[in-house]
Amino acid sequence: MRRSMALDVGRKTIGVAVSDPLGMFAQPVETIERVGTKKDLARVAELVAERDVDTIVVGLPIQMNGEEGDS
């Protein structure tokens, strides 16, 4: 089975987690330091290939008051 990848995209870093093959549990993989869109996406693409990922989920920045954040 292929895996899912979750991205927590911030201004300075991108948090990356990947599910187990059954899609039941996610484990943190790494935190990517943001250096530029092309390099950031290249690293994400490397991780997708390395981990056999077929689905990517990107977090939505919700603030404590329930409103969408600036990110």
Report on the biggest sheet: 4 strands, mixed
State the share of residues found in helices, binned by percent: 10-25%
Q: Count the helices. How many?
A: 1
The secondary-structure class comes to alpha+beta
User: Could you give the distance between the termini?
Assistant: 32 Å
Sheet with most strands: strand arrangement? 3-2-1-4
Average pLDDT metric: 92
Low-confidence spans: none
**Residue fraction in strands:** 35-45%
Give Rg in angstroms: 13 Å
**Secondary-structure element series:** EEEHE
- What's the shape? flat
The number of E-state strands comes to 4
What does this structure look like?
The mean pLDDT is 92. The chain is flat. The protein has a four-stranded mixed sheet with strand order 3-2-1-4, with helices on one face. It is built from one helix and four strands; from the N terminus they run βββαβ. The chain starts with a strand and ends in a 13-residue tail after the last strand. It is α+β, with helices and mostly antiparallel strands and 71 residues long. β1 (3-9) and β2 form a beta hairpin.
Kindly list the characteristics that best describe this protein.
71 residues, alpha+beta, four-stranded mixed β-sheet, 1 helix, flat
